[in-house]
């Protein structure tokens, strides 16, 4: 009976942390500006955008905290995987925040359709312009990191949603200035609230996919099990499990039952090479076993 494993690496926490600090600082400053102007002018569109920026600040803050926790708190006797899942939990929390804010804005806007307040356009236009610049900077800072970290992707999606929201506020302010139409502001508030929901759903779905330890969507587990079973010396592959620990860290474990004449060390190396080259899984724990051990595995209830 033999065991083998490779090594995985977490997505670049230190590299992402600096970018998140920048986005956090920018978002916090302009969130305050938008809230102050939004309440002073009764602009639901600007309040909506400021609320999204609040989720940006909270989301980026949680993402930053998750990276710091995952990087500094190492695995221990009872924490064999450390705190790598912290960033996945942060991404899920971000999604819940966005759902809540979007629902609140839609609810508030519906009430305003009956008696829309007069919103002064110029202060809203100036505040929205400043918010747009802030979001463009944060967007560019987080864009690369979002490709390899679900945690940074959560913060990135919030900034993206708020960037679109800032554009929407600019449009409603321009309509208010040029036409005086009172409904432009609440209508834009609703559109901003609704626009973010599908993207929030996707983020929540990805986070739950990882937390439930489902196999990565890019992989066909049945095909992988068949490929392992077809390796020289392998009679059967079973108890195959593939899951994602956190972004960039995919893990696998499997039992490989061998024929009597098989070289266990050779089977182990061949299986590790197959998983690494064909499926890009570097961290795999493989148990190579004879006939009696395989029979024992089949008797287990789960």
Description:
There is one protein chain. With 302 residues, this protein is an alpha+beta fold. The chain has 2 domains: 13-211, Cation efflux protein transmembrane domain (Alpha-lytic protease prodomain-like, Up-down Bundle), CATH 1.20.1510; 215-299, 2-Layer Sandwich (Alpha-Beta Plaits), CATH 3.30.70.1350. Helix content is 65%, strand content 11%. It contains 10 helices and 4 strands; from the N terminus they run βααααααααββαβα. A 4-stranded mixed sheet has the order 1-4-3-2. Strand 3 (249-258), helix 9 and strand 4 form a beta-alpha-beta unit. Helix 4 (121-142) runs antiparallel to helix 5 (150-179). The longest helix has 30 residues, at 150-179. The radius of gyration is 25 Å and the shape is elongated. The chain starts with a strand and ends with a helix.
């Amino acid at each position: 009976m033999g065991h083998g494993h490779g090594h995985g690496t977490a997505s670049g926490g230190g590299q992402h942390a600096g970018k998140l600090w920048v986005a956090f600082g920018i978002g916090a400053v302009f969130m305050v500006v938008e809230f102050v102007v939004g309440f002073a002018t009764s602009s639901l569109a600007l309040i909506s955008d400021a609320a999204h920026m609040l989720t940006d600040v909270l989301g980026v803050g949680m993402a930053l905290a998750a990276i710091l926790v995952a990087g500094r708190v190492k695995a221990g006797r009872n924490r064999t995987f450390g705190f790598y899942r912290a960033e996945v939990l942060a991404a899920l929390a971000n999604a819940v925040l966005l759902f809540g804010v979007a629902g609140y804005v839609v609810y508030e806007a519906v009430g305003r359709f009956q008696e829309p307040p007069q919103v002064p356009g110029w202060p809203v236009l100036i505040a929205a312009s400043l918010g747009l610049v802030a979001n463009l900077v944060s967007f560019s800072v987080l864009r690369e990191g979002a490709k390899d970290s679900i945690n940074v992707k959560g913060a990135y999606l919030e900034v993206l949603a708020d960037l679109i929201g800032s554009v929407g506020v600019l449009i409603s302010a321009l309509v208010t200035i040029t036409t005086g139409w009172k409904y432009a502001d609440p209508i834009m508030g609703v559109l901003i609230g609704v626009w973010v929901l599908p993207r929030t759903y996707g983020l929540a779905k990805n986070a739950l996919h990882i937390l439930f330890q489902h196999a990565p969507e890019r992989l066909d587990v049945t095909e992988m099990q068949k490929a392992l079973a077809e390796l020289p010396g392998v009679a059967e592959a079973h108890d195959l499990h593939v899951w994602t620990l956190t972004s960039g860290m995919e893990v696998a474990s499997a039992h490989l039952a061998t024929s009597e004449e098989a070289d266990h060390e050779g089977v182990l190396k061949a299986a590790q090479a197959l998983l690494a080259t064909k499926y890009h899984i570097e961290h795999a724990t493989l148990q190579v076993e004879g006939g009696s051990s395989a029979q024992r595995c089949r008797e287990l209830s789960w």
